[in-house]
Specification:
The chain is α/β, with parallel strands linked by helices. A 5-stranded parallel sheet has the order 2-1-3-4-5, sandwiched between helices. The longest helix has 13 residues.
């Protein structure tokens, strides 16, 4: 079972993503928060395998966020969500000081199914 933490500043989108995670067999929603600071506070307690984070979330790219989350969860996969048509231009590769980062290039339900495969 993959433990998933969702970070999304828009309440309706946060609820929709949380619902998708809860409905996906093999995935367990361990938290749904709106801010990076909430994610950092929650991360050590819930120990997610995957963090889904919207690129609109304030300071998601901050080295402080990546470094702190990396200290707490060194094996966690950080997956950036974007509604951009060209997310690779908005989400450049992370530096070596941050967690491994993936840019979700598929629909969220398909991605969640791949976690439990």
């Amino acid at each position: 079972m993959k433990r998933v933490l969702v970070v999304e500043p828009h309440p309706q989108v946060l609820t929709a993503l949380a619902d998708l995670v809860e409905d996906e067999p093999g995935c367990e929603l361990v938290g749904a928060v709106a801010t990076v600071s909430e994610a950092i506070s929650l991360a050590s307690d819930v120990r997610p395998d995957v963090v889904l984070i919207d690129t609109d979330t304030t300071n998601w790219r901050s080295n402080q966020f990546g470094h702190r989350l990396g200290e707490i969860l060194p094996a966690t996969l950080l997956v950036l969500l974007s509604a951009a048509t060209e997310p690779h231009k908005e989400c450049p590769e992370s530096s070596a000081k941050t967690l491994p980062t993936s840019i979700l290039k598929t629909a969220a339900p398909e991605f969640l199914r791949s976690l439990s495969a």
